[in-house]
Amino acid sequence: MAGLLTGETALKNNSAPEISGKSFKQFVAALFLILILVSGSCSKNEPVPVARFTFTASQDYMIPCTVNFINQSAQASSYAWWFGTDSSITTINEPGSIAQNPSYIYNRPGTFIVTLRAFTETQKEWATMVQTITIRDTLNQGFYK
Predict the structure, then answer these.
(1) Phi, psi of 9 (to 5 degrees)
(2) Is 141 within the bounds of a domain?
(3) I need a surface site. Which of 25, 63, 102, 110 has the fewest CB within 10 A?
(4) Are residues 122 and 58 in the same domain?
(5) Is 47 part of a structural domain of the chain?
């Protein structure tokens, strides 16, 4: 231990103590830099979420059909859903729901693209899952089968 910090000699010579051949000022500067790098500039290292969902439907997928979406996402804290009744997902379009497990009523037949986007707490990381759902017309039951 006596050779690690030679501050007694340095203080007598009115210079900075040395630690293993480096000046004390260089040591403190390096330690400060390491602390900044380890802290990651105060940002969180978040795991990438996994978006996943299933759904169940009323009325054997015939209109009017209530679809219950079951969110099975992992490592996410907020969600955005699009139910396929608008044109497409863009940053301009508002999601149809931000609930974790929403329900949606389809009042017209067709095939719809349902999209779930799962976000981390800071919303810097996100994942998307897309599924199609086909809703049938009660008047033309055979047409969509």
Answers:
(1) -65, -40
(2) no
(3) 25
(4) yes
(5) no
Q: Could you list the residue range(s) of the whole structural domain that residue 13 is in?
A: 7-42
Q: Is the pLDDT of residue 135 over 70?
A: yes
pLDDT in tens, 10-50: 445 555 544 455 565 665 555 444 544 444 444 567 889 99
Domain count along the chain = 2
Closest CA to 69 of 111, 138, 130, 136: 130
Looking at residue 91, what is its pLDDT? 45
Beta-strand runs (E) in the chain: 18-19, 22-23, 53-57, 65-71, 78-82, 103-106, 110-119, 126-135
Question: pLDDT tens across 76-119, in order?
Answer: 999 999 999 764 444 446 788 999 999 999 999 999 999 999 99
